[in-house]
Every structure is written in structure tokens, then in C-alpha cells.
Amino acid sequence: MTVTTIAGRDVHVDAEGFLTEYDEWDDELATRLAGQIGIDLTDAHRRIIAALREDYRQHGETATLRRVTTLTGVPTRELFALFPKKPAKKMAYVAGLPKPRGCV
Amino acid sequence: MTTTTTAATAPTVVPDFDADTGRKLAIICSKGTLDMAYPGLVLANAALGEGVETHLFFTFWGFDIITRSRMGALKFTPLGNTATHLPQGLGGLPGMTALATHQLRRQIADIGVPEVPEFLAQIVASGGHLWACRMSADLMHLTEDDLYEEVEGIISATDFIEKTDGAQLLFI
């Protein structure tokens, strides 16, 4: 576990750079995290991130891509458009959550 | 990896999600039972989620996975499958295949994994490519009209090998 500085504040991250403390995240940080991986956050992104965080709060586990589609009604294609290439990991990163553990 | 350094804390590590590795995966699905359909679909889905270009080739019994009249009704039998740890004689009893299929289908649904047709749709939506085997189509007298609409084409084994040049390959 490492402490690093993002958006002018100290946060805990793992070896890959994913935030490890749920409560250290906020919208400003999300914007910065997204920017670091080349994503300009829009409301569409934010709605998904909010759903992901809420689901994690309730279940203690990061939603897989399929679960995100089920939770938000956002189709798979659109998730790939908003978070290209590795949507599940990118969403988790921006949401300040661990990588999803599930297979599907 | 991009790093920025600040005085008091460790450098910020940013995951490199977009590195173009050029990785390709070819999955040959040759079995049409419920339990043998899923491994290929799960792995294809995982690869696509990692940005890997993925092609699935459905051949022989695997053709059932993309045949419209059968794809929603794949079966599972304990007969000849010692991994179920049931007495083998039991597997041959009337109704056992239906029972085992029902049970497995429910277990799959319980863990949030979609049924085969929906799973294929998800794979296609994630950018996956579905191909049907020419020889199997000829053998079973099936045409594109009989197949799941997202199958990109009925192609020869040679065509598939060409399309997946440089790919890692899984035969299931």
C-alpha cells in the first residue's frame, strides 16, 4: 500500500495505482483519475461511476461489466465506447474501487 | 507508465490500460453441450474485456451454440462425465439429462452468467467475431438463415486460420 498525491491530496493506492480507500474518493479525484487514463468525464460516465460505487458500498465487490449493464441499463457497446478497450478496469479505476473479481 | 513525483509521497502510478499489445485470441468451439459451451464464451468475454481481438470458430458439435433452433436448449448429461461424482448407472436413467440440464442452467443463472444466446450477444457487443465452419454447415445442411444473426459468415478452416494469423489459440 502506497500513499501518493493526486489532485493535491494524499490518497492510498495499490501497486497498480487503484485507490484502496473507498472514502478517499470524490468527484474531483474521479475527474483527475479519468484524465490520467485519457478519459474526459461526462455525465454519462459519472452516472455509471456512481452506480458502480453504490453497488460496491452495498455488496463490497466491484461490479463486472455485465453487472454494470444490468444495474444501469447502459448497453455493453456503450460501456466500451465510454471506457474503451478495458471498460471494467477503467471504470473501477475512475470509481476508486478495486478491479472486479468476477469472471462474467 | 506515467509518473509524476511530489516531495512527500510516492510517485503516482497510472495503469497503462491502452498499450496496444496487438494480442489476438482464436477460440475453436467444437462441443455442443451446455457445460462445454460456456468455457469458450467466458474466455472470449474475458479477453474482450481486456481489449484482446477475439474470434470464435464454431465447428462440429459446437455448431449447436450458434444454431438458432438449438442454441437456447443446449443440454448437459452426467453420463460419461465422472466429474459429476454420481454413479454412472444413474446418468442413463430416463430424465436424468433433463434434470441435470435444468440444475446446471439454474446454477449458471444464479451466479449472474447469461444464457447462451444472450452471452453471444454480449460477446458481439464487446467487439467479438463469430464464425461458422463451412464443413459443419455442409455436413448438417445448414445455411446462414439457420444461424444466429450475428455470425459474420460461414467460412472454411483455411479462412479462419488466415483471419487469426498470429493469434493465440484455444481448442475447446
UniProtKB/TrEMBL annotation, chain A:
It is found in: Cytoplasm. Coiled coil: none annotated. Keywords: Cytoplasm. The active site is at C103 (cysteine persulfide intermediate). GO terms for biological process: tRNA wobble position uridine thiolation. PANTHER family: SULFURTRANSFERASE TUSE. This is Sulfur relay protein DsrC. It comes from Micromonospora globispora.
UniProtKB/TrEMBL annotation, chain B:
SUPFAM superfamilies: DsrEFH-like. Gene3D superfamilies: DsrEFH-like. PANTHER family: CONSERVED WITHIN P. AEROPHILUM, PEROXIREDOXIN FAMILY PROTEIN. This is Peroxiredoxin family protein. InterPro entries: DsrE2-like (IPR032836), DsrEFH-like (IPR027396). It comes from Micromonospora globispora.
